[in-house]
């Protein structure tokens, strides 16, 4: 579901404040990278900064100024054939699209 940056930021700041463990998937132009971590920063001015552990070494930075769209995914709305598996593993998901077909997916997993 296409959403506003304001709606996306409410999730990102909650995830940052709660140090929610997330899966990050970066893809575009034939490149794909996946890692688990949490958001160290989430703000309109500084963008998103993701880290993999308590060392706080930045693994990914993303400027939201260059984002073209924000899409929210609720597992309950996934295709029926995949819904049981998706609902079992994913709480919420966001996909941020950038220029040039680059995408960043953030997934809050169920544990």
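Sequence proposed for the structure above (111 residues):
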């Amino acid at each position: 579901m296409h959403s506003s940056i304001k709606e996306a930021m409410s999730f990102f700041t909650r995830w940052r404040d709660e140090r929610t463990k997330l899966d990050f998937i970066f893809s575009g132009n034939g490149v794909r990278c996946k890692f688990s971590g949490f958001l160290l920063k989430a703000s309109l001015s500084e963008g998103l900064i993701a880290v993999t552990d308590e060392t706080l070494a930045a693994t990914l930075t993303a400027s939201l100024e260059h984002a073209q769209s924000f899409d929210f995914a609720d597992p309950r709305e996934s295709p029926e054939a995949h819904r049981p598996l998706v609902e079992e593993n994913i709480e919420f998901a966001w996909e941020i699209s950038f220029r040039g077909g680059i995408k960043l997916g953030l997934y809050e997993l169920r544990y």
